[in-house]
């Protein structure tokens, strides 16, 4: 924690920018839902917006952007298992006999 | 929760004496916690085994009153001492649950992991001592909850250790208690696994690089990752099943379910298969949780008693990592019979065949390590040596279960029971016994009796095979598991039914052969031969560099590591072992 | 006895113990919520009919709650910045604000739940409501957990600022990581349950 006051001030400004962006994206995603698009585009758009928001929160508020390799490695591993947990059961449900 | 993770020991430099409660009950010392885990899990193992001994009576002599204890089981369970099918189901479900979640895992990870890992990496304690203490007590709470479920109306959980829906959702009260118990046990495992990973990654002594870690530590590291990432989906599934049972939701309840001629009052729309996916997402990695620490213990003991380096240490490590990774994507080989299409079934068959490779590598490396060694055949080595072929049988008989064409016939027969018991009983349990004999002198400062140790070993070896070998025969004949009368009413079981008696007698004999172990275990701590040095087995790893027994804080001098874990019989060295902390060759 | 790297970073891994611990914990949380999301997808794709969230649930209230939670995230991170600037007074204000915003979130959630129960919409009604109540309920429990931790660091736990400021700052960082994660989960829950 050898950060100087100045760089903390810079961080604080970034946090405020991120905060405003998150608010804006919340408005975007709610407005999109009022368009009543069909299932596929609405899911896609909602997920894209949510992912951007997730990216902002994890990278800035949780400062992943300057985190160590060790933490990344753990998260990548978790990500792989997360995806297999989502998609393997799903593919079973789409590939069924009887 | 974040707070808990952040709490660490506020080091007290001057060891002011702790009260009894702090020293033995709510201790934060990893060694005391390890011993708490050891004693508790051994009790649960014995309890789970006792349930099985009652079941074995029913299988061997269906419909006959159980001698001695039959009258104590209560009219609701065994009127006139004759076991009811409902009670058999409770015993079976609780045997599986207790053995896996309350016996073997807490013994392998909670006890051995806790006691040995910090010592082997040269750490003063676990990274989060308070968390460690909590993890034990939450486990204890889970255990008590599970035991209490026998007192529920309708008795304990009776839908098997797998708790398949929809059966489990409409089952008696005991299932709810089972689910709460599981939530406690999962929480305890999570706390423990975070602690292990942080300890191993952060608290290694100077010079102890990852590729110098004893294989036991590696096995615990991989195991912790499995527990960390595989258990949460079961926790989620447990919450959903609780919702189904308590709030009337239909996560696992299909539409229009009719039970005993009555339409069930569920809105429907749920999927029983969803439960199976979430359950096996945990339960397959769980089998590696059962076996990896055992492999770690065996590796330590083999290296120590062959007086040779392990053959292929690097390939052992990489195989263990690969095994851990793959174990997350093979789970649906337990579900070939659920109407799986060919594509997805091929995927899981392939991953299953792939995962057998690292297991074979590990086993082969351990076998080759024996080559040309002048071995010391002490008790722990005997158990470790027996582990190898027993685990081999368990593993090889698993291959036909991983291929759909054969599994369709073998699924849910006694063949499956035989297969996984070879892995966990004469496999893992033997390794755990070996671990007890091996580390006993470090913990107590005294040796266990060798004669009774060997007696224990030979008796157990014979009996274990007496129980489990005939299961393959019965299974191949098509006898289903979970039959409360051992298949008496089925034509195809008639030719193999008589084996039940023999198997049951072996099971009871097995119990008798544990008596010398229990006596040896307790008596030797008082009467056993005192060890002459801190390193009675002349081993190389760091746990033997501590005083005996290790004090709070473990090491008198902060250890520094200069070499790999298994430098035995290095040419040019004076002695046939060179401890890891020894600076130059001597 | 002193456990190493409780405050300082271990040189070769670059992290202190609790930092690694909390990320591991969050990894397990990802798998926990991942399993529930997986269940949601399976139930939905397998269902004959599935209601749009906005036909049953209150989108304006949930939007408000999203804003509340995002705001609590920035107060949380600001409390950490304040500590790094050695401004304890400011820290207390921000962390206190975070706890209060958590309360506001729970109150709004309770109003939502109440409205559902009034219309006899219980979890047992259909699988949509089942997963809605389960996911938001579990998330709510996480909010409560985080509030307890933060309240502790606002009150009695903050004594450590005097004895060991470095370590206290680390603790707030770690508590923050957890709190942001709870926010992150909501960011996905909100569109999935309410808007699709
Ligand atoms: C050494 C003594 C043991 C004996 C004699 C024994 C015997 C049995 C038998 C006969 C069954 C089948 C019951 C039935 O299908 O009706 C069974 C089931 C089972 N056993 Fe064991 N077992 C032993 C140890 C273990 C150990 C050490 C573990 C785990 C680590 C274990 C885990 C299980 C599980 C998970 C089941 C399946 C329960 C179910 O069907 O839900 N057993 N055991
Ligand atoms: Cu499996």
List the helices and strands and how they pair.
The complex is a heterotrimer of chains A (98), B (586) and C (196).
Chain A: H1 5-34, H2 39-61, H3 69-94
Chain B: H1 2-6, H2 20-25, H3 30-60, H4 85-120, H5 129-148, H6 174-202, H7 215-247, E1 258-259, E2 262-263, H8 272-306, H9 313-326, H10 342-370, H11 379-396, H12 399-402, H13 404-410, H14 414-444, H15 450-476, H16 494-497, H17 499-527
Antiparallel strand pairs in B: 1-2
Helix pairs in contact in B: 3-4, 3-5, 3-17, 4-5, 4-6, 4-7, 4-8, 4-14, 5-6, 6-7, 7-8, 7-9, 8-10, 8-11, 8-14, 9-10, 10-11, 11-14, 11-15, 14-15, 15-17
Chain C: H1 17-46, H2 53-56, H3 59-84, H4 88-118, H5 127-154, H6 160-163, H7 165-195
Helix pairs in contact in C: 1-5, 1-7, 3-4, 3-7, 4-5, 5-7
Bound molecules: protoporphyrin IX containing FE (HEM) and copper (II) ion.
Residues 49, 52, 92-93, 95-96, 99-100, 104, 160-162, 290, 417, 421, 424-425, 429, 467, 481-482, 507 of chain B line the site of protoporphyrin IX containing FE.
Question: Could you characterize what this model shows?
Answer:
The complex is a heterotrimer of chains A (98), B (586) and C (196). The mean pLDDT of chain A is 89. In chain A, 81% of the residues lie in helices and 0% in strands. By secondary structure, chain A is mostly helical. Chain A has two domains: 65 residues; 32 residues. Chain B is an all-alpha fold. Chain B has one domain: Cytochrome c oxidase-like, subunit I domain (Cytochrome C Oxidase, Chain A). Chain B contains 17 helices and two strands. A two-stranded antiparallel sheet of chain B has the order 1-2. In chain B, β1 and β2 form a beta hairpin. The longest helix of chain B has 36 residues. The radius of gyration of chain B is 24 Å and the shape is globular. The N terminus of chain B is likely disordered. Chain C has 196 residues and is mainly α. Chain C has a single domain, classed as Cytochrome c oxidase, subunit III, four-helix bundle (Four Helix Bundle (Hemerythrin (Met), subunit A)), CATH 1.20.120.80. Chain C contains seven helices and no strands. In chain C, α3 packs antiparallel against α7. The radius of gyration of chain C is 19 Å and the shape is elongated. The chains are: A mainly alpha (98), B mainly alpha (586), C mainly alpha (196). Chains B and C meet through α1, α6, α7 and α8 of B and α1, α5 and α7 of C.
């Amino acid at each position: 924690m050898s950060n100087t006051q100045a760089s903390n001030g810079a961080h604080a400004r970034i946090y405020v920018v991120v905060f405003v962006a998150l608010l804006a994206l919340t408005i975007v995603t709610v407005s999109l839902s009022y368009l009543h698009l069909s299932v596929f585009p609405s899911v896609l758009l909602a997920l894209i917006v949510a992912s951007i928001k997730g990216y902002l929160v994890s990278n800035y508020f949780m400062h992943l952007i300057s985190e160590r390799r060790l933490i990344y490695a753990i998260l990548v591993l978790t990500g792989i298992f997360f995806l297999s947990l989502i998609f393997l059961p799903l593919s079973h449900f789409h590939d069924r006999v009887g | 929760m974040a707070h808990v993770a952040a709490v660490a020991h506020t080091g007290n430099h001057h060891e002011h004496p702790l009260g009894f409660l702090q020293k033995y009950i709510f201790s934060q010392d990893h060694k005391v916690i390890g011993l708490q885990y050891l004693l508790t899990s051994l009790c649960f193992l014995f309890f789970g085994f006792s349930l099985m001994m009652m079941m074995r009576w029913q299988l061997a002599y269906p419909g006959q009153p159980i001698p001695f204890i039959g009258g104590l089981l209560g009219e609701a369970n065994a009127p006139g001492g004759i076991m009811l099918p409902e009670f058999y189901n409770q015993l079976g479900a609780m045997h599986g649950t207790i053995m896996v979640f309350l016996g073997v895992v807490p013994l392998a990870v909670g006890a051995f992991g806790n006691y040995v890992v910090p010592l082997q990496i040269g750490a003063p304690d676990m990274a989060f001592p308070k968390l460690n203490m909590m993890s034990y007590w939450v486990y204890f709470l889970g255990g008590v909850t599970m035991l209490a479920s026998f007192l529920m109306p309708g008795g304990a959980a009776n839908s098997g250790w797998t708790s398949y829906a929809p059966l489990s959702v409409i089952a008696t009260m005991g299932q709810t208690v089972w689910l709460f118990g599981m939530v406690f046990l999962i929480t305890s495992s999570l706390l423990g696994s975070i602690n292990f990973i942080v300890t191993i990654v952060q608290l290694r002594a100077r010079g102890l690089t990852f590729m110098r870690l004893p294989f036991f530590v590696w096995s615990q590291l991989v195991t912790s990752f499995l527990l960390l990432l595989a258990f949460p989906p079961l926790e989620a599934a447990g919450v959903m099943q609780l919702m189904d049972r308590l709030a009337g939701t239909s996560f696992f309840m299909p539409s229009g379910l009719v039970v005993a001629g009555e339409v069930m009052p569920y809105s429907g729309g749920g999927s029983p298969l969803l439960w199976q996916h979430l359950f096996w997402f945990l339960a397959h990695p769980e089998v590696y949780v059962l076996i990896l620490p055992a492999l770690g213990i065996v590796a330590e003991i083999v290296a120590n008693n062959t007086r040779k380096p392990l053959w292929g240490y690097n390939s052992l490590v990489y195989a263990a990592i690969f095994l851990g990774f793959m174990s997350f994507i093979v789970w649906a080989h337990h579900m070939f019979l659920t109407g799986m299409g060919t594509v997805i079934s091929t995927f899981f068959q392939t991953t299953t065949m792939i995962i057998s490779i690292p297991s074979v590598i590990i086993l082969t490396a351990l076998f080759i390590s024996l080559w040309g060694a002048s071995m010391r055949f002490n008790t722990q080595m005997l158990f470790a040596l027996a582990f190898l072929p027993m685990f081999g049988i368990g593993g090889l008989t698993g291959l036909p279960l991983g291929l759909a064409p054969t599994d369709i016939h073998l699924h849910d027969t006694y063949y499956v029971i035989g297969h996984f018991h070879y892995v966990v009983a004469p496999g893992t349990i033997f390794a755990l016994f070996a671990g007890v004999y091996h580390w006993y002198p470090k913990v107590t400062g005294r040796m266990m009796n060798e004669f009774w140790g060997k007696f224990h070993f030979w008796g157990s070896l014979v009996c274990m095979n007496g129980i489990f070998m005939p299961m393959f025969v019965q299974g191949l004949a098509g006898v289903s598991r979970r039959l409360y009368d051992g298949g008496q009413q089925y034509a195809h079981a008639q030719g193999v039914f008589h084996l039940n008696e023999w198997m049951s007698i072996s099971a009871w004999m097995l119990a008798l052969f544990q008596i010398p172990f229990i006596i040896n275990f307790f008596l030797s701590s008082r009467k056993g031969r005192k060890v002459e040095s801190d390193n009675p087995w002349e081993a190389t790893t760091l746990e033997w560099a501590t005083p005996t027994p290790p004090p709070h804080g473990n090491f008198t001098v902060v250890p520094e590591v200069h070499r790999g874990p298994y430098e035995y019989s290095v040419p040019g060295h004076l002695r046939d072992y060179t401890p890891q902390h020894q600076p130059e060759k001597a | 006895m002193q456990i190493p790297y409780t405050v300082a970073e271990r040189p070769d891994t670059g992290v202190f113990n609790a930092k690694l611990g909390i990320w591991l914990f969050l990894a397990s949380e990802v798998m926990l919520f991942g399993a529930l999301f997986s269940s949601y997808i399976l139930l939905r794709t397998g269902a004959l009919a599935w209601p749009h969230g906005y036909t049953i649930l209150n989108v304006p209230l949930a939007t408000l709650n999203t804003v509340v939670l995002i705001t609590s995230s920035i107060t949380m991170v600001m409390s950490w910045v304040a500590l790094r600037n050695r401004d304890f007074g400011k820290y207390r204000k921000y962390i206190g604000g975070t706890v209060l915003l958590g309360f506001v979130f729970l109150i709004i959630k309770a109003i939502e739940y109440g409205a559902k129960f009034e219309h006899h919409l219980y979890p047992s009604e259909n699988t949509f409501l089942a997963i809605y109540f389960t996911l938001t309920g579990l998330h709510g429990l996480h909010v409560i957990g985080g509030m307890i931790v933060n309240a502790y660091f606002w009150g009695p736990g903050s004594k450590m600022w005097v004895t060991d400021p470095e370590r206290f700052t680390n603790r707030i960082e770690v508590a923050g990581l957890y709190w942001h994660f709870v926010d992150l989960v909501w960011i996905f829950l909100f569109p999935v349950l309410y808007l699709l």
